[in-house]
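Re: Re: ligand-bound prediction request (bumping)

Still looking for help on this. To restate: I need the protein modeled with heme C bound, output as structure tokens. Inputs repeated here so nobody has to scroll up.
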Amino acid sequence: MRIEGRKWTTLISAALLCWVFPLVAASTPANGESPNTQISAAEAWAFPQVPPPDPHAPKTDPARIIHVAGSTRSYTQAQLDVEHFVPDWFPQDHLAAPSIVTVDRHPGWPWPCAECHMVNGAGVPATAQIMGLPKAYILEQIAAFRHGQRGASAPRTTQDMADEARSVSDDDLRLAADYFAQLKFVPHTRVVETASVPKTHWKYFVQVPDQDGAREPIGERIVEVPVSFDDYQYNNDRTRYIAYVPPGSIARGAVIAASGTGAAAACESCHGAKLQGTDLIPPLAGRSPTYIARELILFRTGQRSNPEAAPMRLEASQLTVNDMIAVAAYAGSRKP
Ligand code: HEC
Ligand code: HEC
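Reply:
Sorry for the wait, this slipped through. Here it is.
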């Protein structure tokens, strides 16, 4: 997650042009399969995109010293540019991390978990917040990634996580799962209802407001932007986000969470009254609304196909995109 085609972005940029859109079905497929099992064009906002590197982007100075607000540490641009290097801006924020979390095992996979999930597990909207997830759930999901039950034909980013899961050793995995499960979850997203949003473009897996400050109607989507793109690009694990959602989403989501909608059961009946989760049912409160909505779409399309996901596949098949946005907005706005 760094500027101009480095790091995570470097590898992926090769595959990026065929990345999201082959998955997007503009209309009902010829085989008569329900469009509900396809990712629709109206859902593309939930799937991170990486435009090709800008050939006119100004060159960065390798000797430049980089700081982020509140940290006493600094790194040179050259250090940050080393492939799979992970900065640790706030060591006081987390336990001592096992090497699989922070240190590259080159060549090839596995990569340090922190490259995509941050040292403290805060993640970014394109990956997942994994700080404080129950250990049993982390292990179960890694097994799903390993068995092609999560990420088989899903977005490129999910396939990267599957490559990671297949290459990490069981010992390292246990250490990583222990570590992330012990961290306290700290939400970093503010959910804001609004009819009009900044116009944005995709930059390295995240949406960024356009320079000219133009605005546009939000329509039916979530637009989640980092408060500071510099924080994001320097892997600052205290990066904060704003998730813009359509007006009325939070109240509508609260009703779905508490009472369900149509044939969909109340989320709280399984995820808990505070959406805090249990051992094998993950927490939803305070997590990225974009992540929550994306996962709901992936349950509906069957791309999360491990047996434990069966109740969620049923649940998601009963929700419209609008319901998903509403319930994701509500869950994201709740204090964990
Ligand atoms: C190359 C980037 C990358 C690396 C490295 C990476 N992950 Fe992930 N991880 C992802 C992405 C992307 C997702 C979300 C996939 C999706 O949305 O379907 C994810 C999802 C997960 C999830 C599922 C979270 C949930 O709530 O269901 C877990 C658990 C996880 N990663 C653990 C790890 C661990 C442990 C490591 C290190 C051993 C690691 N990841 C390394 C990219 C990565
Ligand atoms: C019948 C029980 C049940 C109900 C009702 C339910 N869930 Fe779930 N949910 C689960 C289980 C179990 C999982 C874990 C799936 C797995 O292990 O792969 C899960 C996982 C999820 C995830 C994935 C989170 C992650 O970390 O990747 C999301 C998002 C989610 N649920 C949202 C919802 C929403 C929103 C509702 C209400 C509209 C809801 N769930 C209702 C049982 C339920």
